[in-house]
């Protein structure tokens, strides 16, 4: 047991750098009196202080690795303690932790043992043993190893709820600099294969009810922010392309965690967490707010504003579009008002059919008026000062946020 605990300590710590561990979107019902399920609300989450998910049993199969990627704590040249689980050890941990209600699923990644196929085969055996021997219906997220054969990827798709092939570095040119043994072909090829197989199974399901599940929670990937020179425009363009062509469920962004001095990566004192957060906000605008990448960042503004969120930044750069008339503007334009969420925008559009909306209505609908009041027009809205330039408004919004933070700390 002592050996297992030591392995668990090493390999769970090494897994914390992998952010792509969301468990949403899978529907795997319990059957044949099996163990657990992954339907609907089947997985709950908790997060560490830096926002990383820890509710799943999140471990590496091993932190031994044949690659020497400059940004990775498990790279072969890094002097860290090494360990590796057997397939049976991971299965036993998962079952025992699940029975004790410690976890509600498994997130299993890995360094590369001998080859991509050798490692992928072990990952698949873990999932297959859990599903077929233990009738485990809980959530399973496996890392798809770049360069793994289609046969192993196919088998993985039948047992896992989600697979993720991590791109890590947002351009192939910089990938070559910091991870010369990797290439985009080995990363994109399995992604393409899984996308095509997912479409094929989905289509078969329409005609044959007994078609098995194949990746019910889809694919995801992770991009590292700040380890190389890509700007936010390049990162968001890549993410948008992945959403549109690969139909990924999520692109995760991980601020580069400086591990040890390596002249291939920048010397940072701390991970760029604010930048990471702004990119997540921008990603949200792409997926749910009908923004295009060019609305958020472009050649003129290649990086996100770190002091205000991307929607406020958009409004400040496009003063000719604001204030927006709440009672007449179309839904897409209402979505672009800072402080107005998707649900609030839907309520505005449905409610204004019956009555003319004013500020009190917006407050009841959950609109964040502290931000929205500068960008809306309706009865009761504060009169906009014509002499207030966007630069001044930006300073006002930043000051509001500072005051709010100061007030909150009094109750902390």
TrEMBL record:
The keyword Signal does not apply. It comes from the Bacteria. InterPro entries: Aldolase_TIM, DNA_rSAM_put, Endo/Exo/Phosphatase_dom_1, rSAM, rSAM_sf, RuvA_2-like. Its cofactor is [4Fe-4S] cluster. SUPFAM superfamilies: Radical SAM enzymes (SSF102114), RuvA domain 2-like (SSF47781). Residues 60-200 form the Radical SAM core domain. Keywords: Iron, Iron-sulfur, Metal-binding, S-adenosyl-L-methionine. This is DNA modification/repair radical SAM protein.
């Amino acid at each position: 047991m002592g050996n297992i605990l030591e392995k668990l300590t090493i390999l769970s710590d090494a897994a914390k750098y992998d952010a792509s561990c969301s468990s949403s979107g899978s529907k795997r019902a319990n059957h044949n009196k099996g163990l657990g399920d992954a339907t609907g609300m089947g997985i709950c989450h908790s997060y560490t202080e830096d926002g990383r998910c820890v509710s799943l049993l999140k471990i590496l199969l091993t932190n031994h690795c044949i690659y020497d990627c400059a940004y990775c704590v498990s790279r072969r040249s890094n002097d860290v303690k090494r360990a590796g689980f057997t397939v049976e050890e991971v299965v036993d941990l998962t079952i025992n932790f699940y029975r004790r209600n410690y976890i509600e699923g498994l997130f299993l990644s890995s360094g590369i043992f001998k080859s991509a196929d050798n490692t992928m085969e072990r990952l698949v055996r873990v999932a297959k043993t859990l599903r077929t021997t233990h009738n485990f219906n809980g959530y399973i997220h496996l890392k798809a190893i770049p360069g793994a054969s289609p046969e192993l990827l196919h088998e993985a798709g039948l047992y896992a709820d989600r697979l993720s092939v991590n791109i890590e570095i947002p351009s192939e040119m910089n990938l070559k600099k910091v991870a010369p043994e990797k290439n985009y072909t080995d990363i994109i090829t399995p992604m393409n294969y899984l996308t095509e197989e997912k479409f094929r199974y989905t289509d078969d399901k329409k005609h044959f009810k007994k078609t098995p599940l194949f990746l019910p929670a889809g694919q995801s990937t992770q991009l590292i922010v700040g380890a190389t020179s890509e700007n936010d425009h390049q990162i968001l363009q890549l993410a948008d392309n992945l959403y549109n062509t690969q139909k990924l469920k999520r692109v995760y962004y991980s601020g580069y965690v400086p591990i040890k001095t390596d002249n291939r990566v920048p010397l940072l004192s701390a991970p760029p967490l604010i930048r990471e957060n702004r990119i997540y906000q921008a990603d949200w605008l792409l997926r749910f707010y009908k923004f295009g990448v060019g609305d958020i960042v472009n050649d003129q503004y290649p990086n996100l504003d770190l002091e205000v969120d991307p929607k406020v930044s958009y409004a400040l750069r496009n003063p000719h579009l604001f204030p927006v008339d709440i009672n007449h503007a179309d839904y897409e334009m209402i979505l672009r008002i800072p402080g107005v969420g998707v649900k609030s925008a839907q309520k505005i559009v449905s409610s204004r059919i019956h009555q003319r909306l004013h500020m009190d209505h917006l407050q009841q609908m959950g609109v964040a008026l502290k931000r929205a009041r500068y960008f809306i027009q309706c009865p009761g809205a504060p009169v906009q000062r014509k002499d207030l330039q966007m630069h001044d408004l930006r300073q006002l919004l930043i000051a509001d946020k500072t005051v709010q933070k100061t007030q909150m700390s009094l109750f902390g």
